[in-house]
Design a protein that fits this description.
Elements: E1 3-7, H1 14-20, H2 23-34, E2 39-43, E3 59-62, H3 74-88, E4 92-96, H4 98-106, E5 110-113, E6 119-127, E7 143-150, E8 152-156, E9 162-166, E10 174-177, E11 181-184, H5 192-201, H6 203-208, H7 213-218, H8 224-227, H9 229-235
Parallel strand pairs: 1-2, 1-3, 3-4, 4-11
Antiparallel strand pairs: 5-8, 6-7, 6-9, 9-10, 10-11
Helix pairs in contact: 2-9, 3-4
Length: 237
């Protein structure tokens, strides 16, 4: 059975943890549904600075976080060379939100504050032509809904990255590096209740940038195609 390491780079909000569990549970459940008997382990590099051995790992999943990649915290910076080693061994990866931005920086890109401000809510994402030849994204519809909440973004993708999806707000909604290393800005682990909780948390910031929070809340909708990503990633291992 495949062995998957979840790198927990942050904590979900307390109300989300109470109702749904923290990020480790939100990510491990779909992995275990996809492949019963899969080995899933957790590493929190914020409190444990000893990086796990890469030997025996089939895949790495990197969660989101309320931290900012541009803050360059010591634990986050220490992950970059380790991720480069994992990529050199062609270990499968999937980074989400913070993980998306961290992977981009580790592989030669740049992350930072989005010039258009925060994107939060359920939005349409569009696949690029390049995604038609991608093992993970080619099975998705050409346009699909996804849950998003982020103030930072991949400002510059690594030179060898393939852009797989984008939308009007963000040109880097999904990237692939190599053949088995993917990252996404959107949240496949979210459901509508979690998305609503995150919108409530960032509503003041959204109002300050002129967003109609009521309309964003009304626009929250299921995202079955985006939410299938974690299970389909696991089945590719």
């Amino acid at each position: 059975m495949p062995s998957v390491l979840i790198i927990k780079t942050g904590d979900a909000f307390p109300e989300v943890v109470e109702r749904h569990g923290d990020f480790d549970r939100l990510f491990s459940q779909p992995l275990e549904r996809a492949v019963p008997g899969i080995t899933v382990t957790l590493w929190d590099p914020r409190s444990d600075t000893h990086a796990p051995e890469l030997d025996g790992l089939d895949a790495i999943v990197i969660t989101g976080s309320n931290a900012m990649v541009s803050d360059k915290e010591a634990w986050s910076e220490a992950l970059k060379p380790w991720l480069k080693q994992a990529r050199a061994r062609d270990i499968a990866m999937l980074g989400v939100c913070y993980g998306h931005q961290l992977m981009a920086e580790a592989f030669g890109g740049e992350a930072g504050n989005h010039p258009k401000g925060r994107e939060a809510g359920t939005f349409m994402v569009e696949r690029t032509d390049a995604s038609d030849r991608d093992a993970l994204f080619s099975q998705l519809p050409s346009r699909f809904k996804a849950h998003l909440t982020h103030g930072q973004t991949v400002l510059r993708a690594p030179s060898d990255a393939v852009i797989l999806a984008c939308n009007d707000h963000d040109g880097h909604q999904a990237l692939r590096y190599g053949t088995r290393q993917w990252s996404v800005q959107f949240h496949p682990e979210f459901d509508t209740d979690i998305m609503r909780a995150y919108l409530d948390r960032v509503s003041d910031a959204l109002i300050e940038q002129g967003e109609d929070v009521g309309a964003l809340i009304q626009g929250i909708a299921p995202t079955p195609h985006a939410s299938s990503l974690l299970e389909r990633f696991t089945r590719l291992l």
